[in-house]
Amino acid sequence: MMKYKISGERKQFLVKLMKEVGKGFIILIAVVLAFKFMNWNSFKLDQTVAIAGEISKEPSAVNLVVSGKSSPLFQKSFAYNEKGNYYIINRFDIDGQISDMKDMNAGNIHITLNGQDITSFLVFRFKRFNILYTGGYYFAFTTADSGIEDLVELDRSFLDIENSLFKLAVARKGAEGKQEDEKEIIYQCFQGVEKELTYGSAKISIPLPGVFNKGKLYEIIFHYKVTGGAKAVVMLSPASNPHELDTVVEGSYRKVSILFSPREVTASPVLYLLGRNKVKKGPFDGAVSFKDISIYRYGQEYPWLKEFHGSHVAYFDSVDRLKEEFVGVKYFQK
């Protein structure tokens, strides 16, 4: 039998060809996997792009100037807070500046943020501190008689406080002696029924009927529960960003509110309920459950909706803890 001998040049050509084929096969697999990943996690990619865009807009420092009729009362430059867009000012009580104000035209107070004059802002008033909110920034001013314990507690619990502010503004019972502002129910589902999401079916899409109007305040109230290595995510598209719900309370139901106000008229939005892993790697070894979902529309007109950005999640247990400390909310505009 004669042996077929491959020349050196041909051998090099075949080796090179096999390498190119191998590279092409690897690229093909990578493209297929990337396509599948985008299909499975498109909402995550959208969320990442949105977050990256917001981060790129944030300044390296936050400059605040509060002035009276003739001179500055407070001036400070804060390093950008990566934990959240909030900043705490100890023992600078602005309550005296705002208690008798009806609007900013009275000239009692003037605010400049990052070199821009502020034409409207909200002040959430508590017994031991006041929170000035404008353009997505939160500035907490403790009162003159606050101690270091109050400052530490405020810093520790600020994210819970921030989440609760707008819910406190409409659920004022115990603060101003009023019942919660009037609202009407526009949709309900899973009433008295647990809907569990596991890895095989970890997404529910709920088309909502009707139109959500610009300049109106809406609220989604529901109960959720997480077990194992799972986390719960809720998104109302296109009215709000995805909200990853707190998993501190595990194994029992927690009541939550999401307040939102559409920037544009929104027809037939979709409510997404999702279950995801707490960590990027590893199996989905838990479950997420939802029940008693109700959607409301508030009848009252709120001038501060101009300052209301995106949507805000509030946990009822946190709101209840803060009610006794909450005095009220004031909105100022030029």
Name some characteristics of this structure:
single chain; 334 residues; alpha+beta; 6-stranded antiparallel sheet; 5-stranded mixed sheet; 21 strands
How would you summarize the topology of this molecule?
Blueprint: H1 8-40, H2 42-57, E1 61-67, E2 72-79, E3 86-89, H3 95-98, E4 110-113, E5 116-117, E6 120-126, E7 129-134, E8 137-142, H4 148-170, E9 183-189, E10 195-197, E11 203-207, E12 211-212, E13 218-227, E14 230-237, E15 243-244, E16 254-260, E17 266-267, E18 270-277, E19 287-298, E20 311-315, H5 316-323, E21 326-333
Parallel strand pairs: 3-8
Antiparallel strand pairs: 1-2, 1-4, 4-5, 6-7, 6-21, 7-8, 9-19, 10-19, 11-18, 12-17, 13-16, 13-19, 14-15, 14-18, 16-20
Q: Give the overall form.
A: globular
Q: Write the element-wise H/E pattern from the N-terminal end onward.
A: HHEEEHEEEEEHEEEEEEEEEEEEHE
Can you give the helix content as a percent range?
25-40%
> What is the radius of gyration computed over CA atoms, rounded to a whole number of angstroms?
26 Å
Total beta-strand segments: 21
Query: Mind summarizing the main beta sheet?
Result: 6 strands, antiparallel
How far the N terminus sits from the C terminus, by CA atoms, comes to 100 Å
Low-confidence stretches: 48-56
Name the average pLDDT.
80
